């Protein structure tokens, strides 16, 4: 049971940072686009 948890945590640690980085990058881009639209209108 503990071994499976360790493997899952290892996969999560490998998999999540790029995904989180991508999501935050998309969010930042989306927010800045919305802000620009508000400023221009």
Outline the structure in words:
With 41 residues, the protein is mainly α. It has one domain (1-41). It is built from 1 helix and no strands. It has one helix at 2-40. It is rod-shaped, with a radius of gyration of 18 Å. The mean pLDDT is 87.
Structural class: mainly alpha
Biggest sheet architecture = none
Overall shape: it is rod-shaped
Number of contiguous helices = 1
What integer value in Å does the Rg equal?
A: 18 Å
| Average pLDDT for all residues | 87
Residue windows where pLDDT falls under 50 for at least 5 positions: none
Distance N terminus to C terminus? 57 Å
Strand content: under 5%
Which H/E pattern describes the elements? Answer: H
SSE blueprint and pairings:
Layout: H1 2-40
In short:
The protein is an all-alpha fold.
What key attributes describe this structure?
mainly alpha
């Amino acid at each position: 049971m503990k071994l499976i948890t360790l493997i899952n945590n290892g996969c999560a640690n490998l998999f999540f940072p790029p995904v989180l980085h991508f999501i935050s990058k998309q969010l930042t881009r989306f927010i800045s686009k919305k802000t620009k639209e508000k400023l221009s209108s």
